[in-house]
Design brief:
Blueprint lengths: L1 H34 L6 H14 L9 E2 L5 E2 L1 H26 L1
Helix pairs in contact: 1-2, 1-3
């Protein structure tokens, strides 16, 4: 059983680290959108391109919020951050349940 607990610890730490990287990546997208970054620049277009893959399942759940100064709050990015955090939480709880047996 100690081996199973060690495996759970390793897997859960990998999953938590991947979630942390994804959350930072999605927050960066959210921040760039809010600040109105030029999507024609290479780094911004690459961030939008690769983060779009993770945001796409959450598109059009809620409308984006537009501020008068041209700032955009992309609600789908916020929803994606919450959705992935919830999915990882549920996954870790399931893994923990199986590692205790």
């Amino acid at each position: 059983m100690k081996i199973l607990a060690n495996i759970y610890t390793i897997i859960s730490s990998i999953i938590k680290n991947l979630l942390g990287l994804l959350e930072v990546f999605l927050f960066l997208r959210l921040l760039l959108m809010f600040l109105g970054a030029n999507s024609q620049t290479l780094i911004v277009s690459q961030i939008y391109k690769y983060s779009g893959f993770f945001v796409r399942p959450f598109d059009f759940i809620f409308k984006d919020v537009y501020w008068p100064e041209g700032h955009i709050i992309e609600v789908s990015s916020i929803t994606a951050m919450l959705g992935y955090a919830l999915a990882v939480f549920i996954l870790l709880q399931l893994l923990q349940t199986f590692s205790e047996d």
